[in-house]
Design brief:
Helix 7 packs parallel to helix 8 and helix 8 crosses helix 10. The chain is of the alpha/beta class. It has 12 helices and 12 strands. The protein has an 8-stranded parallel barrel with strand order 3-4-5-6-7-8-11-12, surrounded by 8 helices. The chain has one domain: Alpha-Beta Barrel (TIM Barrel). Strand 9 and strand 10 form a beta hairpin. Bound molecules: flavin mononucleotide. Flavin mononucleotide binds next to strand 4 and strand 5.
Length: about 325
């Protein structure tokens, strides 16, 4: 079965891409994912805060003279699995030589600024594309939705302006008009969008009165939010679309592709089942496509987009009342 797809101008042998996660931190695991059938891998994000802290530390060292050991303590302590800017480029280069599949570097930031220049270094280190995660939380009561959208557009424009490799923006679902924002991103040169950033909801501990970080892996239920917006966007835009969030099974991948995804990222499913899960998913997809007499993945790509689906209202408001009415006591 021909599972080829085109994402960000890259030809991928199948739509399953490993999303940014700890599996991208070791070369052994990157090799296992490629051997397991992943068509591309997104490395874990390098954060704006990490880049800026490293730049500040470099300035301290410069002004205090080389060998000023304490300046090193300004470098962020890499919490959890994240690798700082010092190692990121070396890791990216090593990942590129370890596997033949495209390696996508990930930048994560929320304000327009000098950190976006780092994209150039990622390009020079061999990244096939850049995924730009603009994890923007509107905390400021004086900042309007329009300003937040503009900030997102500005960040994407800055990164796009500094590299010649493709750039995809990983977005949150909480925009008033996602289609319009995507149109504006396309206008500043974005090559694709990744739907959606998963906001990790902090919990609170009522005994210690603390905010407790609480990372839960996804389930397939989360895919539905992506399906609607894939269907809506694929009918109106030419840029690449990737789904991230809730893709666990062959059926999930097929649904996302039918709604218009060119690539489907997996993370939780791989953290739970390991890299072999990709091969099993591809096998099940091939079986389903053959059984339903598809000649290729391309043949069904976008077949459930808003432009092609028999009942487009099912994606829209009209279905809302019907769905609520369907509940049986
Ligand atoms: C442990 C963990 C680490 C992650 N690290 C990153 C990251 O560095 N950058 C990023 O953009 N997304 C990161 N993500 C989000 C994933 O790339 C993905 O978008 C999300 O998990 C939803 O996909 P899933 O349902 O397949 O898990 C991380 C997710 C997990 C579970």
């Amino acid at each position: 079965m021909d599972l080829t797809t085109h994402y960000l101008g890259l030809e991928l042998v199948n739509p399953i891409v490993v999303g940014a996660c700890p599996l991208g931190t070791s070369l052994d695991s990157i090799r296992a994912l490629a051997d397991g059938g992943a068509s591309a891998i997104v490395l874990p994000s390098l954060f704006e805060e990490e880049i800026m802290a490293a730049a500040r530390a470099a300035l301290e060292i410069e002004s205090a003279g080389a060998g000023f050991a304490e300046a090193g303590s300004y470098l962020p302590n890499p919490e959890g699995y994240h690798i700082g800017p010092g190692q990121y480029l070396a890791h990216l280069e090593a990942a590129k030589s370890a596997v033949k599949i495209p390696v996508i570097a990930s930048l994560n930031g929320a304000s327009a600024g000098g950190w976006t220049e780092y994209a150039k270094k990622m390009e020079a280190a061999g990244a096939d594309a850049i995924e730009l995660n603009t994890y923007l939380l509107p905390f400021d009561i004086d900042e309007s939705g329009a300003e937040i959208e503009q900030r997102t557009v500005d960040i994407v424009a800055a990164v796009k302006g500094s590299v010649s490799i493709p750039v995809a923006a990983k977005l949150s679902p909480f925009f008033s008009s996602l289609p319009n924002l995507v149109k504006r991103l396309e206008g500043v040169g974005a090559d694709g969008v990744v739907l959606f950033n998963r906001f990790y909801q902090p919990d609170v501990d009522i005994e210690s009165l603390e905010v407790a970080p609480n990372l839960r892996l996804s389930t397939s239920d989360e895919l539905r939010l992506r399906l609607r917006w894939l269907a809506v966007l694929s009918a109106q835009t030419k840029i690449s679309l990737a789904a991230t969030g809730g893709a666990h099974s062959a059926v999930d991948v097929i649904k996302a592709v039918m709604c218009g995804a060119h690539a489907v990222q997996m993370v939780s499913a791989l953290l739970i089942h390991g890299p072999e899960h990709i091969g099993r998913t591809l096998e099940a997809m091939t079986f389903w496509l053959t059984d339903h007499e598809y000649a290729s993945l391309a043949q069904m790509q976008g077949s459930l987009s808003l432009a092609k689906v028999e009942n487009p209202k099912a994606f829209a408001r009209a279905n809302y009342m019907k769905m609520l009415d369907s509940w049986e006591m």
